[in-house]
């Protein structure tokens, strides 16, 4: 029988080993780069003809004033905390092909989960664990994590209600018993 102090010491060793484990290799999951986890993701689903943003914005003066866009991007309806948010809260004013974190650090659109995670911490935690969103690949091998924007419109992220399909018809000519035949 193991005594209490040895048991506590073993638990301590086990927990310390978890903290000291190295980051996964690129083909096995997340890697750490500059203190941030980087995950393998498919490219974001850009609308046709709008990326790279610098294609249109190159050489344009930056107007940082919050306003309703009347000339371009009129199809974007901002319903994502619209009272407090505006385009340049997420999109970089200086480099239109990048997003920016609250710290000002620029990130690619393929790392947009880091931007979303700043405000949506519990959902971000669940996404990293594979509980929220979609993750494909091997159980103990390469995985690809779908971005938030694969399911949510970043400008109007609430998932729209869907009308459920009707119930299937009852079997004809045979009695139906819940749980199988009787």
Notes on the structure:
By secondary structure, the protein is of the alpha+beta class. It has one domain. It contains 4 helices and 6 strands; from the N terminus they run H-E-E-H-E-E-H-H-E-E. The strands form 3 sheets. The protein has a two-stranded antiparallel ribbon with strand order 1-2. Helix 3 packs across helix 4.
List key phrases describing it.
single chain; about 180 residues; alpha+beta; two-stranded antiparallel sheet; 4 helices; 6 strands; extended
List the uncertain runs: 18-29
> Which descriptor suits the 3D outline?
extended
Question: Could you say which structural class the secondary elements and strand pairing correspond to?
Answer: alpha+beta
How many separate helices?
Answer: 4
Q: Biggest sheet: strands side by side, in what order?
A: 1-2
- Rounded mean pLDDT score: 78
Main beta sheet, described?
2 strands, antiparallel
- For the record, give the distance between the C-alpha atoms at the N and C termini, rounded to a whole number: 52 Å
| Helix content class | 10-25%
Total discrete domains = 1
H/E series: HEEHEEHHEE
Strand content: 5-15%
Structure summary, number of beta strands: 6
Q: What is the CA-atom radius of gyration, in angstroms?
A: 24 Å
Question: What's the SSE blueprint?
Answer:
Layout lengths: L3 H16 L11 E3 L2 E3 L15 H4 L41 E2 L5 E2 L4 H8 L1 H9 L5 E3 L5 E3 L37
Antiparallel strand pairs: 1-2, 3-4, 5-6
Helix pairs in contact: 3-4
Quick rundown:
It is built from four helices and six strands, in the order H-E-E-H-E-E-H-H-E-E.
